[in-house]
Design a protein that fits this description.
With about 270 residues, this protein is an alpha/beta fold. The chain contains eleven helices and eight strands. Helix 4 runs antiparallel to helix 8 (about 185-195).
Length: about 270
């Protein structure tokens, strides 16, 4: 793990996994985890992707080993700026950018606002801001529950919203909730509040790079209509994982990584 200091003074953690052939130039791929997570949540993607790309996994600000930002230091635009500053840190003028859930929201906004730095965009279980789904998903209840129950208990109680419990090992669920509980609860409240108040669906058509949008067909948090907004991206490959709940990037990581690898190999820098 390596750290760098963003332009606003917040220290961010990242890791590079690179098993590409040393005599060939390798495209850089920035990979971002979901809210309540860390780069560790993407560990199972590494074998599939790092053989073909210089894979850079970021701990989003306030998550994992990255510093918790001060008040005013957590916005979607600031997180998008973290992405391009990470590219600068690792010497990439342009990169493939991919993210899961909240990480996908950040990836989308980076593609909207900093298109010259984003070669391709990929998102999993993401819409352009969770404000769209606030009508049927009670994010305030999430916040109240995390504060009253604790993050680990809240995630255990709602595990069936995130995974098909018949298809994952009990040990995986234990690891998942403990990994999430490493994060500060008030920081998680801030990220849920931020994302549930965000909606840039009116700008999604501005994304100009080739894009892969992968959505879970059984998501209780976002509806099919909300995911269909992503089809407004002009150069969009839209893929549905039928029947799966929200956390596809954790439940079927090899499938997610293989689809990403195949997409990126068709769109080299």
């Amino acid at each position: 793990m390596t750290r760098f200091t963003a332009s606003d003074g917040v220290e961010l953690a990242y890791r590079i996994d690179d098993f590409t052939d040393p005599w060939r130039p390798a495209d850089t791929l920035i990979l971002m985890h979901a809210a309540m997570g860390s780069m560790n949540r993407m560990y199972a993607w590494v074998p599939t992707l790092a053989r073909h790309f210089r894979l850079v996994r970021l701990d989003l600000r306030g998550h994992g080993n990255s510093q918790i930002p001060p008040e005013g230091g957590l916005t979607v635009d600031r997180m998008a700026q973290d992405v391009v500053e990470l590219m600068d840190e690792v010497g990439a003028d342009r990169a493939h950018v991919a993210g899961s859930s909240a990480g996908g929201i950040v990836a989308m906004w980076t593609a909207v606002t900093r298109p010259e730095r984003v070669a391709t965009l990929t998102s999993y279980a993401s819409i352009p801001g969770l404000k769209m789904s606030a009508g049927h998903t009670d994010y305030q209840h999430w916040i109240d529950s995390m504060r009253s129950e604790g993050v680990e208990a809240f995630l255990r109680r709602t595990a069936a919203d995130r995974f098909d419990l018949d298809q994952v090992e009990p040990g995986f669920v234990d690891w998942f909730v403990k990994e999430a509980a490493r994060n500060d609860v008030e920081m998680l409240v801030r990220i849920v509040t931020l994302m549930s108040g965000t909606d840039f669906s009116d700008r999604i058509g501005e994304i100009s790079c080739p894009s892969l949008m992968v959505v879970p067909g059984g998501d209780p948090n976002q509806s099919a209509d909300e995911y269909d907004v992503l089809k407004q991206i002009p150069d969009c490959t839209f893929k549905v994982y039928d029947g799966l709940p929200h956390n596809i990037t954790d439940a079927v990581p090899e499938r997610c990584a293989a689809d990403l690898r195949d997409f990126l190999l068709k769109h080299p820098l």
